[in-house]
Amino acid sequence: MTAVSTTTPAAQVSLPPLVDPVEALSREELERYSRHLSLPGFGLEGQRRLRAASVLVIGAGGLGAPVLGYLAAAGIGSITIIDDDVVEASNLQRQIIHRDADVGRAKAESAAAALRRLDPGLAVRPIVGRVSPENALDLFTAHDVVLDGADNFATRYLSNDAAELTGTPLVWGTIFRFAGQVSTFVPGHGPMLRDLFPDIPEPDSVPNCAEGGVLGVLCGTVGSAMATEAIKLICGIGAPFIGRLLRYEALSGEYSTLRFSPDPDRAAVTDLTEVAAACAADPDGGEATRSSVDEIDVAEFRSCRTDVVVVDVREDWERELAAIPGSVHLPLDGIRDGGWEALTAALRDSAVRPESAVDIVIHCKSGARSAEAVGILSGSVPNGVRLRSLAGGIDAWSAADRLQSARTD
Question: Of residues 209, 219, 235, 279, which has the active-site annotation?
């Protein structure tokens, strides 16, 4: 993605408060938020505004976890959490709102329970689902501010377009490996996401966290900055990151700010048609690729397991957690770099005669990387060779194993 260039830096923008304050705080609330009450320019009125505010947080994962924790602790009155995922053990390295006991539980429900423990007076509404073109406008209209911690491009652009159509302020953040970014988009008061990044990127143009990794503590840095932006908007204090993109590089410890302005040539968002197509093509950050390749489901795969050559495109450390017996290991980068020749060499190294590999099943963790591998290799597959991606990856394989063991017991 390429940012819109600008010769005139955007001025810092200050806005009036988003919400009217509640009439009063209880004695318990005055004690609880006493450190806020003594802040110059914030004080009792700022705290009353927070208690009156209604916030929507998209995602209860890496960014959503610190956002939710700090907004709840700050005294926000009502928080809606929307997330369609469940807690996995690999989430606990960074998604600190969840506990080990929550593994397998819906993230929205787990996060809501954590917020209720933190502040029993907080109104929390968990939605186990996904922001979609069908519900986005209603959700945005019903809240004072939205914080987007989504992990896929389609949802980020859906949030931007819904914000522009409803006039709802949007705080946006993203993280990858050792770097993060934050910006704030307020329709009518500065540029939007499409002024900075005009086009929706291809779903597989950037690796996801499972493939590319992410430094756990980075989520706290970026998520805390997002929560701060929401508080500034609600209370009308300071200068939000409107027309500014905050960039943080954790390894160097450096912050930088990119200033950008509205693109005068950009067409205004008038509906959700374009982003609806992107969401349909990429509901899980990879389905567009996945749907265009030949797949085999886990039931069929288990029935023909001895008749196919299995290729694992995950990384070495992932195979330490679980591996399909007899699978040939070739990380996805090897296929990206070497194509069919790399696969042929890996088969030989694993004592598999390439000419005997007439039915090849490629797998990864959940199916996205294997679909990409099949897509790369499809153009050079020799005649007579069938190449398929294992739908659901080793996660589906392991789940089927557990189900079979339970039935046996």
Answer: 209
Q: Nearest to residue 145, comparing CAs of 197, 83, 71?
A: 71
Query: Nearest CA to 244 among 225, 261, 266?
Result: 261
Place of tokens 């998520």: 223
The DSSP annotation for 235-288 comes to HT-S---BTEEEEEETTTTEEEEEE----TTSPPP--SHHHHHHHHH-TTSSHH
Count Cβ atoms below 10 Å from residue 277 Cβ, excluding itself. Answer: 13
Question: Could you give the CA distance from residue 110 to residue 393 in angstroms, rounded to a whole number?
Answer: 26
CA geometry: angle 208, 333, 393, nearest 5 deg: 60
How many Å separate Cα 178 from the centre of its chain? 15
Decide: helix, strand or coil at residue 104: coil
Q: Are 307 and 359 in contact (CB under 8 A)?
A: yes
Exposure string for 13-50, b = 16+ CB within 10 A, e = fewer = eebebbbebeeebeeebeebbeebbeeeebeeebbbbb
- Count the helices and strands in the chain (H runs, E runs): 17, 13
pLDDT tens column, 150-183: 988 899 999 999 999 999 999 999 999 999 999 9
Per-residue pLDDT at 7 exceeds 90? no
Query: Cβ atoms within 10 A of the Cβ of 273, count?
Result: 10
3-state DSSP assignment of residue 297: coil
Residue 204 C-alpha from the chain's centroid: 14
Q: Does the predicted TM-score (pTM) go above 0.85?
A: no
**Which residue in the list 219, 235, 279, 364 is annotated as catalytic?**
364
Domains of the chain: 53-281 (3.40.50.720), 292-408 (3.40.250.10)
Output the CA–CA distances (angstroms, integers) from residue 176 to 179, 344, 374, in the order listed.
6, 32, 25
Q: Does residue 286 have a pLDDT over 90?
A: no
Mean pLDDT within 181-191: 96
How many Cα atoms sit within 13 Å of 196 on the Cβ side? 22
Question: Any catalytic annotation for residue 279?
Answer: no
Contact in structure between 154 and 136 (CB atoms under 8 Å): no
The pLDDT tens digits of the residues spanning 55-76 come to: 999 999 999 999 999 999 999 9
Q: Supply the Cα-derived Rg of the chain in whole angstroms.
A: 24
Contacts of 348 (CB under 8 A, 6+ apart): 354
Give every strand in the sheet of 309-312, ordered side by side. 295-296, 386-390, 359-363, 309-312, 328-329
